[in-house]
Amino acid sequence: xxxxxxxxxxxxxxxxxxxxxxxxxxxxxxxxxxxxxxxxxxxxxxxxxxxxxxxxxxxxxxxxxxxxxxxxxxxxxxxxxxxxxxxxxxxxxxxxxxxxxxxxxxxxxxxxxxxxxxxxxxxxxxxxxxxxxxxxxxxxxxxxxxxxxxxxxxxxxxxxxxxxxxxxxxxxxxxxxxxxxxxxxxxxxxxxxxxxxxxxxxxxxxxxxxxxxxxxxxxxxxxxxxxxxxxxxxxxxxxxxxxxxxxxxxxxxxxxxxxxxxxxxxxxxxxxxxxxxxxxxxxxxxxxxxxxxxxxxxxxxxxxxxxxxxxxxxxxxxxxxxxxxxxxxxxxxxxxxxxxxxxxxxxxxxxxxxxxxxxxxxxxxxxxxxxxxxxxxxxxxxxxxxxxxxxxxxxxxxxxxxxxxxxxxxxxxxxxxxxxxxx
Length: 423
Known about the structure:
Blueprint: E1 5-8, E2 11-14, H1 19-33, E3 58-59, H2 60-75, H3 81-93, E4 107-108, E5 114-116, E6 119-120, H4 121-136, H5 142-157, E7 158-159, E8 164-165, E9 168-169, E10 179-181, H6 182-199, H7 202-222, E11 230-232, H8 257-272, H9 280-296, E12 306-309, E13 315-321, H10 322-339, H11 342-359, E14 370-371, H12 389-396, H13 406-416
Helix pairs in contact: 1-12, 2-3, 2-4, 3-4, 4-5, 4-6, 4-13, 6-7, 6-8, 7-9, 8-9, 8-10, 10-11, 10-12
């Protein structure tokens, strides 16, 4: 018996998390994700049935995530994925673009009407990620969006003084929100690493390293490796922020173990991208992972990883979210590949089994976004199955190196592949 593979009466059956299993699930997920395409271009909010939920807005970050996913799918040879990625890029230039002030609106209606004119770093970081993936995939229109995203971040979101990104602005970039968030800066690290790989400009990797140094080597280290999520404009931690909103989608009270898993993976990506990385990156990745496991698993008598804990580590929001499971299994996989420690492989295998059993909806398609502590589908935090970003990356990344980032790695692999024989 090979790890994860069982032979039954001469037939090979691949278990959860193995490469054949992940490839099959990725194909199912892409088929489900195609339902997010809007007739006028771009992507809407997927409902549980795989159709666009007309009652939900079309957030900029969702359009970006789906564009990113279909760019990666095109690099993997998925038919029609290039056209879907191109439609997402066209939506950036069309319905989301603020042609007066620059940047992109945070959310529009299915009809195209602007719902939220705020300019948010979280969403702009996702636009940068989408544009870099599309550029690596050779999708028409990608370079223009990549240039515009880089300009918006340079002019409005990146702060050399703070060494991090500011959170958000009003529509005309005249008023900055007096809040700083670890979440949007974490996604900036993700996008900056990708942008550095695609553009070759070292400033992006330097910015990613700066953010990680402040938020993880400084703040998380000083907080028992629990990441303070919320800060004021002077970067003072606000540990009681949103104490009355413990289940908020983007700014929940307390600390979020899922983000610690995500950071652990990103720190290993950052380490792999450097010729002479500092030793604290691997140390922190291990510490974040272990503290997140201690805080989120086996805390209430049920399997799965809970959503948030307080500053003291006590459970706060006990919902099981799919993105937390995705980032946890990716962190375990990355740490296993980086260290060779079998405990990470065993943990990843256990979590893949839970994902297979509870999160994948084999009747309706896609993955359930949220489960109760009893591991039944829920919608207290998330409605429907809005996008396939976290789940698709969970299925793809274990087959890719820690560096370069996904689109660059896939593009290089594609160029290196032998040409197909002539018909």
